[in-house]
Amino acid sequence: FRILPCSFFLFCSVDSVEDEMEIATVRHRPEALELLEAQSKFTKKELQILYRGFKNECPSGIVNEETFKEIYSQFFPQGDSTTYAHFLFNAFDTDHNGSVSFEDFIMGLSILLRGTVQEKLNWAFNLYDINKDGYITKEEMLDIMKAIYDMMGKCTYPVLKEDAPRQHVETFFQKMDKNKDGVVTIDEFIESCQKVSNDKCELFSYFHQLAKWLSHSTTN
């Protein structure tokens, strides 16, 4: 799961007068900004910085799937990130209207960076539950694993075997499918993940790096 660069910083530092003046020029609807501040775990200044970067990348104020894929592919030129970016886009597109607004982006990022363990695990489950029926099947997990390996390309060391994605899925289900019915429920998923401490859980490491990449991509 550790697929994202570790060198990204969470937020731009705002130390100079010039930076402060630049933030001050960002235009928001006050009621929308105040609502986001109340609903998310970001401060007003952080929201302004993120909004500035978001509007630079997407002047229309929304991101469609093709734009999201193009941005994401820049970080993984050695492989094909198209399929994984599709799954990730759907996780952020919570109302399933084919676009990610700034509000969608902030609420997802807030969970990934500062959410509780329960919130992060719910978000992760939603990513893996591709058809949103409340269960993770082996086929869904295999699709995600294949997408990750496709995105990594040939840069992994040691070089992964062709059947590595399927082996990963089998290991996943051995640990999480408690009643052996062939699917993983949200309760099984959360129970299994909570038994592993955060510093040892690859899932948490992955989503922390994901959040760092997403915040970096909008603040630079």
From TrEMBL:
Domain of life: Eukaryota
Keywords for the protein's UniProt record, in alphabetical order: Calcium, Cell membrane, Cytoplasm, Ion channel, Ion transport, Membrane, Metal-binding, Peroxisome, Phosphoprotein, Potassium, Potassium channel, Potassium transport, Repeat, Transport, Voltage-gated channel
Keyword Phosphoprotein in annotation: yes
Statement: the UniProt record of this protein carries the keyword Protein transport: no
SUPFAM superfamilies: EF-hand
GO annotations of cellular component type: peroxisome; voltage-gated potassium channel complex
Membrane topology: Peripheral membrane protein
EF-hand domain residues: 80-115, 116-151, 164-199
Gene Ontology MF annotations: calcium ion binding; potassium channel activity; potassium channel regulator activity
Compartments it resides in: Cell membrane; Cytoplasm; Peroxisome
Family, similarity comment: Belongs to the recoverin family.
Protein name per UniProt: Kv channel-interacting protein 4
Organism expressing this protein natively: Gopherus evgoodei (Goodes thornscrub tortoise)
Lineage of source species: Eukaryota, Metazoa, Chordata, Craniata, Vertebrata
Name of the encoding gene: KCNIP4
